[in-house]
TrEMBL record:
Its EC number is 3.6.1.9. It is an enzyme of class 3 (hydrolase). Residues 4-210 form the Tetrapyrrole methylase domain. One of its GO terms (biological process) is dATP catabolic process. Pfam families: MazG, TP_methylase. InterPro entries: 4pyrrol_Mease (IPR000878), 4pyrrol_Methylase_sf (IPR035996), 4pyrrole_Mease_sub1 (IPR014777), MazG-like_dom (IPR004518), NTP-PPase_MazG-like_C (IPR048011), NTP-PPase_MazG-like_N (IPR048015), NTP_PyrPHydrolase_MazG (IPR011551), Tetrapyrrole_Mease/MazG_pred (IPR024180). The gene is mazG. Residues 258-331, 397-452 form the NTP pyrophosphohydrolase MazG-like domain. It comes from Shimazuella alba. This is Nucleoside triphosphate pyrophosphohydrolase. Keywords: Coiled coil, Hydrolase. Residues 389-416 form a coiled coil. GO terms for molecular function: methyltransferase activity; nucleoside triphosphate diphosphatase activity.
Amino acid sequence: MNPKITIVGLGFGNEDSLSIGTWKILQSGDPIYLRTQNHPITPWMRQQGIEFAGFDHVYEKHDQFEPVYREIADELLRLADEHDQIIYAVPGHPMVAEQTVQLLLEDGQARNTEIDVQGGGSFLDIAFARLGVDPVEGFQLLDGTDLTDGHVLVPSQHILIGQVYSSFVASDVKLTLMQVYPDDYEVVIADALGVLGQEKIIKVPLYELDRQDCFTNLTSIYVPPAREDSIYYRQFSYLVNIMRKLRSPEGCPWDQKQTHESLRSYLIEEAYEFIDAINQQDDSAMVEELGDVLLQVIFHAVVAEDRYGFSLSEVIETLTEKLIRRHPHVFGAVQADTPDEVIQTWDEVKKSEGKRKKASILDDIPKSFPAVLTAYEQQKKAAKVGFDWEDVTGALDKMKEELKELAEAPNDLEREKELGDVLFTVVNIARFYKVDPEVALYQTTRKFDRRFRYVEQRAKTSGQPLEECGIDQLEVWWQEAKQIEKDEMNEIG
């Protein structure tokens, strides 16, 4: 006969919440072990002559909960081997927020130990009653000790956060909730629900949550469903529904008529505006411009839902699968410790993905790329198969050759061809120096913009029309602008 662990729940409070079935099991005479003796029912159990041991001493040995639960589960399995049959009692219900029970269920079969989970009054029962929660409206139960990501919160649902046993945990919970809710959003501190003489229900604004002095092992936080539309403005699904509303018959006439083709220029425009915000290191502009880029992505996805048969969910699914598939060094067993190794792994996965056979390695380059980016991508792909200079010296020598041919070009048509060769070689040099040529040229155009505006201002101050100043005077002002920039950089440095 295999060893057996019978797991029961002690309910949410004192003896009034203890079920008759659990009480009968506790009276069976088998050794009883409590995850924690810090429970309202334990004094009453002693009065009834029920003997038990607890694992509170294990909590004192570890700084994290995971090793605590692991040690308790291992010790219970050992005790079951020793006694054949034992009882393990936990607060509330065994299947609600009880990690040790999950570990026993996972390990019991491997250890040839029968795990028999019985019932018990969950704290959810009394919480629903005291807080007026109907879970059919939508309900989330979360662990306060493991709540750091606001993305898991669904503000349209009732949210109950357990394990808020200290002001430190409450502080972490508060900061996470503030990722979604306004600082003054009203939340409820619920402590010792259903325990006569100890129950507390306190409503506080969110920013005051961790300033209360009432946290115990029986404390939970209740967050009611949000009614204000503005709270949902950070929710991705709400944003998508806004776009769907704009595209609906009751929406915007302009949005209704858009197609993938009519939106193409906007996607390019918004991408460049975001790049401009990056180059200016303007955080607030980046927020706005990245939002505009996201708008274009969602706009195209909703257009596709309406007319082309694929959905935003499919777009997200395809992207998620690709990210996991192309990062085997993160989600698999492949080793890649440097950026170069990561790129090599990425390329190898791409080759094995079984896409349609291409006539050329250059086929992946979009025909709509601007010329500089096209040249950059062509050279990168050619270099991967060995069609490249050994180092930048070859590219620099090629530049001298192309400049000589440009200077010797006999007519406009030839000069155009040779100038194209010069620009192509410049892009190649940029690749060797690991410089993005588009970014480099952008920085130069910004620099020219600043300096020329300075020249215009100096001409205006002198009272002389710009075109009458003469090249010598314009060059003086230009050098002034350069010196000002140099002095400013030295001050920053």
